[in-house]
Amino acid sequence: MRWEDFRTSDYVDDRRGGGGGGGGIGIPMGRGGLGIGTVIVLTLAGWALGIDPRILISGAEMMGGGGSGYVEQAPRQGAQPAPRGQKSAPPQDEMGRFASAILGNTEDVWKEVLPKQVNRPYQPPRMVLFSGATRSRCGSASSAMGPFYCPLDQTVYIDLSFFQEMQRRFRAGGDFAYAYVIAHEVGHHVENQLGLLGRVQQRQQEVGKAEANQLSVRVELMADCLAGVWAHHSQQRYKSLEEGDVEEAMAAAEAIGDDRLQQQSQGRVVPDSFTHGSSAQRVRWFMTGLKGGQVPACDTFRASRL
User: Fold this and answer.
1) Which long-range contacts (CB under 8 A, 24 or more apart) does 105-112 make?
2) N or C terminus: which one in the chain shows less Cβ crowding within 10 Å?
3) How far apart, in whole angstroms, are the C-alpha atoms of residue 70 and residue 61?
4) Is 266 domain-assigned?
């Protein structure tokens, strides 16, 4: 992926010690990997420890504390953006510059796409880079929870050593797969901007567990599709993709399907417990966004087939 010439974002808050570097761990930019590995880590850890993995996965993406997805603490529709606060110095290490460049590229894409396609202005999220632990308006954040989006402060939180951990533990990596991690979380911010998360939260409180899980799946698959929409327009405008990038993202989407994770860790698949979607669903929705580049096509809530 050609990311080095992307504009870096002005909305990055680098809370790592010394203004960057993340403990001296560099981002492994080789090809070939899983990408969103946080679901794998948390699912395996949950089943190993006897903890419902949905609780951990929920926290990884929103810090919702036992709910499903982002909706447990989604702000009410029309809530005001969180104050931007004082800016930190721009990241100088490779990992920090990469994350800042990908976020900047999502800003440039969504500021054009959202008003044109759905007649909504786009207000970019913040991104907090941290090491070990930090605070969000959704609660405490730790590196063990992986990347997540907090709708209460409209911020993506990420400990960038997560990418190194995925490379080390799962022999997975690739710059476009890592960009997909960030773009997926930004996809949840787009959902939030559209007023979706609050409506889903309300509905989840009215239905049973299985249907609430299905609503979570639709939220996650839509975010996968929106990540594909970003990649489509980034490629059209910036020619950012290289040979093998699409395959890398498809492998990432496939690797973190609920069915594959459950089969690997417990030897059986329980569809009613899915919160993110099957491997086939995640690949299909990402490719829907990537091929067409249309936000309305990502409306998983109107889709008769996921």
Assistant:
1) 105/3, 105/6, 105/7, 105/230, 105/234, 105/238, 105/240, 106/182, 106/183, 106/186, 106/230, 107/9, 107/11, 108/7, 108/237, 109/230, 109/233, 109/234, 109/237, 110/186, 110/190, 110/230, 112/233
2) C
3) 7
4) yes
Length of the chain: 306
What are residue 83's phi and psi, to 5 degrees? -60, 145
Flag whether the pTM goes above 0.85. Answer: no
Residue 155, domain member (yes or no): yes
Considering the domain boundaries, does residue 304 fall inside one? no
Q: Which of 159, 242, 147, 160 is nearest to 186 (CA)?
A: 147
Residue 1 lies in a domain: no
Q: What pLDDT shows up at residue 275?
A: 75
Bridge partners (DSSP) listed for residue 158: 129
Domain span at residue 274?
A: 12-298
Q: What total number of domains does the chain contain?
A: 1
Query: How many Cβ atoms sit within 10 Å of the Cβ of residue 121?
Result: 8
Cα end-to-end distance, the chain, whole Å: 29
